[in-house]
UniProtKB/TrEMBL annotation, chain A:
The keyword Signal applies. The keyword Signal applies. This is Copper resistance B. Residues 1-25 form the signal peptide. Keywords: Signal.
From TrEMBL, chain B:
It comes from Alloalcanivorax balearicus MACL04. Residues 461-484 are annotated as: Disordered. This is Copper resistance protein A. It comes from the Bacteria. InterPro entries: Cu-oxidase-like_N, Cu-oxidase_2nd, Cu-oxidase_C, Cu-oxidase_fam, Cu-R_CopA, Cu_oxidase_CS, Cu_oxidase_Cu_BS, Cupredoxin. Keywords: Copper, Metal-binding, Oxidoreductase. Residues 56-164, 225-336, 520-638 form the Plastocyanin-like domain.
């Protein structure tokens, strides 16, 4: 209850800040744009069946200030389907350097069986030298929980339309969360390699591999539950944006 | 390059042979006029005009697409006026949105200049605005909308003012050749797309195979070092045009390459071609294989004739040339885009059944050190030339957006040692008592220093030591690079044209035909850096977009120097309304222009006589750069106001 009040308060503050900083174009009309990018929408051939996974974001705003929304999750498609994880994040994104935005926001993890987890997020996002799309976020949750998430992605052009995207993501936790089977320290590393063909820039089917591995106590918890600590999956999906 | 053209793609590039043929299926002539635009511009002569701006469809690619037209034609009618007369134009807006017409390059009262927000409020839907002004000049100009993206969707046309006195260059035939870019996409959509993914239209990006080829041809180490520089900077070396042949069809007088606009001639005739680059975004490299051209005017103003074979024409520039084909054969007017993603084409022919070969597009040129604002450092022949060095401001060398440590100077073709360059025999900026004006403008016929305009009220005018110094406002999210050592490039044919076997026209070849049009002695110097962030698609002057800027004030009748430093990797055609821009060519020579194409990494200066009071637009003529904020208001105000201001301040 208290947490959700904090969240909505933050949200209101966030939107107020965003709306209160208009960028004016030549004719006095606010120049605002928006984009919805479904970066990954794919089927994964996992050990325990077919998993649908997605990673998408959207933004709306001017050159400097944007309202940013991101979601990712996984859903087991077999046996009637079950959402394994669903995460949503809403942030105020502000450009502070030519290639970098910082982001301040809130995140909610929708747990199918356990109580939802809420977080406040602080992060940076941008293009590092060598064109690495980079994101680093620190999430601060209730009861002293914290997560540091680091992501990097690269685009390698075979042709103007055939593009290979290696990416890697690591999650580190500041405190054990037994309910969710997460240990302290480095918990998971995910890596992917996806080859897409841009029929249009906005529409690209892809195939690839996705690899996940659990580390440390997180791996031990998984073993205790009789789960594998690493999984390599073939994936097929589409990348679309508007 | 691994791009292969599929058939539909090829058709898209070349367009339809049908052009804008109106296929009136069951429509009355009135309906047809209202709904279907014609391609090809009729010529309207006189001094009284009724122009109707309205929406219509045109079919350039096989699809009917909405356009914004004057009197139903694409381009708008070519208007033919006579110097000394007063013209009256009643312009009626049939669009559901505000419109305007700006008379590009004309000297007129600012209320007639047609820029909504500065000259007037614009022409509201259903309303008629009457433009009336005396013609104080002659030559080739053009007109276009200054509202939204209407210019991109067809609202542009040629403007020819015949001289009051007989033209010294008599010709047998006289053609206006309006070059433009057309997209089936809504221009608002193009702009929004650039904001989302700025390289969306660039299909010449470097691929893995290009790198492998470079490994073979240049060696692994050299390739990796080159890659290191570009990758560290997060820049694309093929970023020559924001919007390309991927979406554009390039037109000659409203005709696609397949529709092939034709101009007739008889062998032995003298023909004047008035090239007008009326594109929204496209810089053209223009030539007529098999035929040399002689330039007689640029931007409407007469120049001393120069024979040449190819010329780069920036957006909004005009070029009058005379050709004298002797043979009974056809010639191709070939205008390929700077990024080589397409071309506009027409034919000069004695017989409509003849056409000439269309040249292949050149390979995509790659941006280099010169475009990065690393000045003379990449060409060995010039690298150690003291003249070139004089223009480099070494005191600022390490203050650029690029870390010199990343640049592998030792591996550049000149083999220069950066360390020794910085410290041996070089004065470090103005502290050593170097005369800035003599250093920055080596061509002055006077050593008198011209003071920089400084104003505490205007962030565009901070105190500065040199023109190449970067203002504090250039350090922010909107600026992705700053040229370390911009240099004059007036005699540089430009990227992609440097290795030609034939004469490429440059600004340095040209000079106002009748000596000096005005004084070469400015009273003040205003410096503006052209800035941007390609990734975010932000464009500005001095890192400050129009929305955040103060007007630049000029004192009535003052002679002022405007110095532009291009801190971006792109060309920018910079246009000042209402006042001449007299480009300083050196040796006291001037070239009178209204639009100046500034190369990446270039520094140039021009003199302006502020002889027309009022509020004028000053901007990059790439439509989407202007919209993004590469725009200023210039206010010419009575001089006494300023003297009072300054006295009260001091």
């Amino acid at each position: 209850m208290k947490a959700s009040m904090t969240l909505s308060g933050l949200l209101v503050a966030l939107i107020a800040v965003f709306v209160g900083t208009p960028a004016l174009a030549m004719e006095g009309v606010p120049a605002r744009f928006g984009q919805i990018l479904v970066d990954q929408l794919e089927a994964r051939d996992a050990d325990d069946g077919t998993v649908a996974a997605w990673s998408a974001n959207a933004w709306y705003g001017g050159d400097i200030n944007k309202l940013y929304f991101a979601t990712e999750g996984e859903r087991l498609m077999d046996r009637g389907g079950e959402t394994e994880s669903l995460e949503t994040r809403l942030a105020w994104s502000r450009a502070f350097a030519p290639y970098w935005d910082w982001q301040l926001g809130v995140r909610r993890d929708w747990q199918p069986d356990d109580p939802n987890r809420d977080w406040v997020s602080v992060g940076v996002m941008g293009v590092a030298p060598y064109f690495f799309e980079t994101e680093a976020n620190l999430f601060l949750g209730e009861s002293g929980h914290s997560e540091l998430r680091l992501e990097a992605e690269y685009e390698l052009l075979f042709t103007q339309r055939l593009i290979l995207t290696p990416e890697v993501e690591a999650s580190l936790y500041g405190k054990e969360d037994r309910d969710l089977g997460i240990g302290q320290g480095l918990a998971t590393v995910e890596a992917g390699l996806r080859l897409r063909y841009e029929i249009r820039r906005e529409f690209a089917p892809y195939i690839g591999v996705h690899w996940e591995k659990k580390f440390g106590d997180t791996a031990d918890f998984a073993r205790d539950h009789g789960e594998d600590t690493s999984d390599t999956m073939l994936v097929a999906g589409i990348r679309v944006w508007y | 390059m691994t791009t292969s053209f599929s058939l539909p793609r090829r058709r898209f590039v070349q367009g339809l042979a049908l052009g804008g043929t109106a296929l009136g299926l069951g429509l009355t002539p009135t309906q047809l006029f209202a709904r279907q635009g014609q391609t090809g511009a009729p010529e309207l002569r006189g001094n009284q005009f009724q122009l109707n701006i309205g929406a219509a469809d045109v079919n350039l690619t096989g699809r009917n697409r909405p356009a914004t037209l004057v009197n139903g034609s694409l381009p708008a009618p070519t208007l033919r006026w006579r110097e000394g007369e007063t013209v009256t134009l009643r312009v009626t807006n049939h669009l559901p949105e505000t419109t305007s017409i700006h008379w590009h390059g004309l000297l007129l009262p600012f209320q007639m200049d047609g820029v909504p927000g500065l000259s007037f409020d614009g022409i509201a839907p259903g309303e008629t605005f009457t433009y009336q002004f005396p013609l104080r000049q002659s030559g080739t100009y053009w007109y276009h909308s200054h509202s939204g993206f209407q210019e991109q969707s067809g609202l542009y046309g040629g403007l020819i003012i015949d001289p009051a006195e007989p033209d010294p260059h008599t010709v047998d035939r006289d053609y206006a050749v309006v070059l433009s870019d057309w997209s089936d996409q809504d221009p608002k959509r193009i702009y929004a797309t650039l904001k989302k993914l700025s390289h969306y239209y660039n299909f010449s990006e470097r691929t893995l195979f290009d790198t492998l080829r470079d490994f073979r041809e240049k060696g692994v180490v050299r390739t990796l070092k080159d890659r290191h520089m570009w990758n560290r900077m997060r820049m694309s070396e093929t970023d020559l045009a924001d919007v390309t042949g991927y979406t554009y069809s390039f037109l000659v007088n409203g005709h696609t390459p397949a529709a092939n606009w034709q101009a007739r001639f008889e062998p032995g005739e003298r023909i004047k071609l008035r090239f007008i680059n009326a594109s929204a975004m496209t810089i053209f490299d223009l030539r007529i294989p098999g035929l040399d051209m002689t330039v007689v005017a640029m931007d409407g103003q007469p120049v001393k004739p120069v024979r040449f074979h190819e010329c780069r024409l920036g957006v909004a520039e005009t070029l009058d040339v005379i050709v004298e084909p002797k043979d009974h054969r056809a010639y191709t007017l070939f205008a390929q885009t700077i990024d080589r993603s397409g071309y506009a084409r027409g034919t000069l022919t004695p017989d409509p059944s003849l056409s000439a070969e269309v040249p292949e597009l050149d390979p995509v040129p790659l941006l280099g050190h010169r475009e990065m604002g690393m000045g003379a450092m990449d060409h060995g022949a010039m690298g150690h030339d003291s003249g070139a060095m004089k223009t480099m401001d070494h005191s600022r060398m390490n203050h650029g957006g690029m870390d010199p440590g990343d640049m592998n100077h030792g591996d550049m073709s000149g083999g220069m040692d950066h360390g020794s360059m910085n410290h041996q025999g070089m004065s470090h900026g103005t502290q050593d008592g170097m005369d800035h004006s003599a250093m920055g403008h080596t061509n002055h016929d006077t050593n008198a220093a011209v003071p920089f305009a400084v104003s505490a009220d205007n962030p565009d005018l901070p105190a500065r030591q040199s023109a190449t110094e970067h203002a504090d406002s250039e350090y922010g999210p909107g600026v992705d690079m700053r040229a370390m050592s911009p240099v004059p490039m007036l005699d540089d044919p430009g990227i992609g044209l440097r290795d030609r076997d034939w004469k490429v026209l440059t600004y340095a070849d040209l000079e106002y035909a009748h000596g000096l049009p005005d004084s070469t002695q400015p009273e003040r110097e205003i410096v503006l850096h052209l800035t941007g962030n390609m990734e975010r698609y932000m464009w500005s002057f001095n890192g400050i977009p129009f929305a955040d800027a103060e007007p630049l004030e000029l004192y009535h009748n003052e002679r002022v120097r405007l110095t532009l430093v291009n801190d971006t990797m792109m060309h920018h055609p910079i246009h000042l309304h209402g006042l001449w821009s007299d480009l300083e060519l050196g040796d006291g020579r001037l070239l009178r222009k209204h639009t100046l194409l500034v190369k990446p990494g270039e520094k140039l200066s021009y003199l302006v006589r502020a002889d027309a009071l009022g509020r004028w637009a000053y901007h990059c003529h790439l439509l989407y750069h202007m919209e993004a904020g590469m725009f200023r208001e210039v206010r010419v105000v009575p001089r006494h106001q300023h003297h009072t201001d300054e006295e009260s301040r001091s």
